[in-house]
UniProtKB/TrEMBL annotation:
Organism: Virgibacillus oceani
Sequence intervals crossing the membrane: 12-39, 59-78, 85-109, 133-153
Keywords, sorted A to Z: Membrane, Transmembrane, Transmembrane helix
Name assigned to this protein: DUF2269 domain-containing protein
Lineage of source species: Bacteria, Bacillati, Bacillota, Bacilli, Bacillales
Length: 164
């Protein structure tokens, strides 16, 4: 079963919206991480991490799940398929990064940062957690940007099928 043009357009729209929310979340995490890293006030730092933690439990997970589900539906219900084109396979591989980071890592890193700030009230003690968060944020932003580029340019063409 393949989607007709109107349902396909709606599904693409929902997919783009989920991807945009995921990207917006990571930009928000980046801004909050910069704020926390440069803050001299432990309450401000804790607030930044609290916001990240709330986002990691809600819109980050919802957007990640929604993007993956709509992406799979688009592949299966259109001419693209899951493994017909190299650019789709590359997007599937890149999807592993935000999936793992968004479903587990961001939640635990932000929670650990909150706990550390509450216990120590010192910025210096949170540098390891800030490094973990920064690494996760940068990895996600790079993978999302690469997936956007792959979606627009669709490089490498169709895979060759084996002769029967």
């Amino acid at each position: 079963m393949k989607l007709s043009i109107t349902p396909k357009r709606w599904l693409v729209t929902v997919h783009i919206l989920f991807a945009a929310i995921m990207f917006g979340n990571m930009i928000t995490f980046l801004i909050l991480s910069i704020t926390a890293a440069t803050a001299n006030d432990s309450q401000l730092m804790e607030s930044c991490y609290q916001i990240m933690h709330v986002l990691s439990k809600t819109s980050v997970k919802a957007a990640t799940f929604g993007t993956i589900v709509t992406g799979i539906l688009l592949s299966v219900l259109t001419k693209w398929g899951l493994f017909k084109f190299y650019w789709i396979i590359a997007k599937e591989a890149l999807t592993i990064i935000p999936f793992v980071l968004n479903m587990w890592a961001m939640y635990y890193w932000s929670l650990d940062a909150i706990n550390m700030i509450q216990v120590t009230s010192k910025q210096a003690d949170s540098s390891m957690l800030q490094t973990e968060l920064w690494t996760g944020i940068i990895m996600q932003l790079i993978s999302l940007i690469l997936m956007f580029i792959l979606s627009v340019f669709k490089p490498w063409g169709k895979r060759q099928t084996a002769a029967a």
